């Protein structure tokens, strides 16, 4: 990550920690409020009820119950801008996420690289 972007992210974290509202926790209610800009979905091989959903400007979400509920996986990262997901078919707990929106339209946003998880998110 470029030094300026890292410094901006750290400044954001510092402001959030110093806020009088720092003790309040946001509660994610699911990816339904992302405006329909789903950029990628990946089903985990051999686990048809487990899949990931990436939204252009709404982060990465995971369900293990065929979409009845979702867990946000990217809320604490420096970017929420998603472009692509890949699941290793031989090691389904290994997931890569490419950040940066790949839709050429009115609100394209850049990301900050590729992230890898070895524990399914």
Structure description:
This protein has 121 residues and is an alpha+beta fold. 13% of the residues lie in helices and 31% in strands. It is built from 1 helix and 7 strands. The chain has one helix spanning 3-18, and strands spanning 38-44, 47-55, 59-63, 71-72, 82-87, 95-99, 114-117. The chain has a 4-stranded antiparallel beta sheet with strand order 1-2-3-4, with no helix packed on it. A 3-stranded antiparallel beta sheet has the order 5-6-7, with no helix packed on it. A hairpin with a 7-residue loop joins strand 3 and strand 4 (71-72). The longest helix has 16 residues, at 3-18. 18% of the residues are buried. The model has no long low-confidence stretch (mean pLDDT 85).
Order of helices and strands: HEEEEEEE
First CA to last CA: what distance? 20 Å
Uncertain segments of ≥5 residues (pLDDT<50)?
Answer: none
Question: Radius of gyration over alpha carbons?
Answer: 15 Å
User: What is the number of E strands?
Assistant: 7
Q: What is the strand arrangement across the widest sheet?
A: 1-2-3-4
Structural class estimated from helices and strands: alpha+beta
Percent strand: 25-35%
Shape: globular
Q: What summary fits the major beta sheet?
A: 4 strands, antiparallel
